[in-house]
Every structure is written in C-alpha cells, then in structure tokens.
Specification:
Helix content: 55-70%
Radius of gyration: 16 Å
Number of domains: 1
Largest sheet: 3 strands, antiparallel
Order of helices and strands: HHEEEHHH
Strand content: 5-15%
Number of helices: 5
Strand order of the largest sheet: 1-2-3
C-alpha cells in the first residue's frame, strides 16, 4: 500500500462520528427567547455544555460570528469529551452554528 494513501486514511475525519457529536451538542444546547416581543437576535442567550464556569450563557451574535479560536471552551469541550482534534472541532463548530442559527431563526 502506498504510504501517502495510508497517511490520508488516518487523516480522514470520521464524519459519521462527528455528526453524532454535533447531534449531541445540539441536544445539549438551549437558548432563551427574550420574551418581550423584540425582533433582535442580539437579545437571545445561548447555553451549551461547552460554556465555561465563568459564563453561564453567551450572546447569540457572539456565538454566531467568531471563529473557533475565539471560543476556546468549545474546542476544549470537543477534545476533552469526544477526543477531537482541532480540525474536527472546527468542523463540529461550523456545523453546530449552522444548525443552532437555523433553529433559532426558523423555530
């Protein structure tokens, strides 16, 4: 077997596993509707299993706009709980944000 093919095999992300991780983190994520009729997404607060002890929630816009490097607790959560590397954590981060954004925007 070609060593390049073998190395690529071990570098390939296991998307089936990563999608299960995404599903789990989505299930563990909750958000609150500001409840006073405001239309601004800025008022939503997102609670997730990756939010550190210093914060109980994070603002919607903060969660939807930063890169994963801005939210070290997400990467740490993925590594500590699921054993993911940086590339896998970035994939999970991007997909999680898309799903949560869609759920908030479309109910």
């Amino acid at each position: 077997m070609n060593i390049g093919i073998l190395l690529n095999y071990f570098k390939t992300m296991d998307y089936k596993f990563l999608n299960k991780v995404i599903d789990q983190i989505v299930r563990e994520t909750v958000w609150d509707d500001p409840g006073y009729g405001g239309d601004s997404l800025d008022d939503y607060r997102i609670y997730g299993p990756f939010v550190g002890d210093d914060y109980r929630w994070l603002p919607y816009n903060y969660m939807m706009n930063p890169t994963i490097s801005d939210l070290q607790s997400f990467e740490n959560h993925c590594k500590g709980v699921y054993g993911l590397n940086k590339e896998e954590s970035e994939y999970v981060w991007d997909e999680w944000r898309k799903i949560i954004k869609d759920k908030i925007n479309n109910g």
